[in-house]
Amino acid sequence: MSLKKEVVLSEKAPEAIGPYSAGMKLGNMVYTAGQLPVDRATGKIVEGGIAAEARQSLTNLKYVLEAAGSGLGYVVKTTCFLADMGEFAEFNAVYAEFFTDNPPARSTVAVKTLPLNVRVEIEAIAYIP
């Protein structure tokens, strides 16, 4: 059996800012690119600090997953990048709003700088039911 990878595009999530796809499907799995806190309607980074940025990044992640036929409830692993670990608790509170039951495995790492100088970027691996 040969698996074919398929590009995932979402009309709700912001377009990629480089030569990459928002997501890739392979079999019954979807792998997302890191989602930034950009509002597709305005094309701008949301204002309001880490909580607003985390909420928008997670919403964008949800849109990409849904475009692949998956959803937040099917996420098995996330990787979260924070520009400031001092904002971890506030980030974590917002994250917990999106993953309420059986949260996925997660890595959270501090990075020096993120694209567009945002505070957070989130990627995921999920299965497609």
What topology emerges from the helices and strands here?
Elements lengths: L4 E4 L14 E4 L2 E4 L5 E2 L4 E2 L3 H19 L7 E8 L5 H11 L6 E6 L9 E8 L2
Helix pairs in contact: 1-2
Mean pLDDT: 96
Shape: globular
The spatial strand order of the largest sheet comes to 1-2-3-8-6-7
Q: Helices and strands: which structural class? A: alpha+beta
Helix content: 10-25%
**CATH homologous superfamily identity:** RutC-like
Q: What are the segments in which pLDDT stays under 50 over at least 5 consecutive residues?
A: none
Query: Strand count, sense and closure of the main sheet?
Result: 6 strands, mixed
CATH architecture: 2-Layer Sandwich
Q: CATH top level?
A: Alpha Beta
- N- to C-terminal separation? 19 Å
The CATH topology comes to 60s Ribosomal Protein L30, Chain: A
Number of DSSP strand runs: 8
Rg over CA atoms: 14 Å
Describe the protein's architecture and organization.
The chain is α+β, with helices and mostly antiparallel strands. It has one domain: RutC-like (60s Ribosomal Protein L30, Chain: A, 2-Layer Sandwich). It is 23% helix and 29% strand. The protein has a 6-stranded mixed sheet, covered by helices on one side. The radius of gyration is 14 Å and the shape is globular. The model has no long low-confidence stretch (mean pLDDT 96).
